Amino acid sequence: MKASEFEPRFNEAEDMSDHIDWSRARRPDLDPKHTRSRDRAQSQDEEAGFR
Question: How far is CA 8 from the centre of its chain?
């Protein structure tokens, strides 16, 4: 379905859930910006006194 077909139907509050690929959905800006390896994170936490 093209956006030109989808949008008017969506705006009329029609149920469009059958036309959405939910497996590809994501929430922008919620992906981690930086990750640390588990071992490195654990050793840094231990050095800071956390356990």
Answer: 26
Cα 37 to the center of its chain, rounded Å: 21
Per-residue pLDDT reduced to its tens digit, 11-43: 999 999 999 998 888 877 776 666 656 666 667
Helix (H) or strand (E) segment spanning residue 3: helix 3-11
Q: Which amino acid is at 8?
A: P
How do the residues of the chain divide into helix, strand and coil, expressed in percent and rounded to 5? 50, 0, 50
- Residue 15 CA neighbour count, 13 Å, CB half: 2
Helix (H, G, I), strand (E, B) or coil at 31: coil
pTM for the model: 0.44
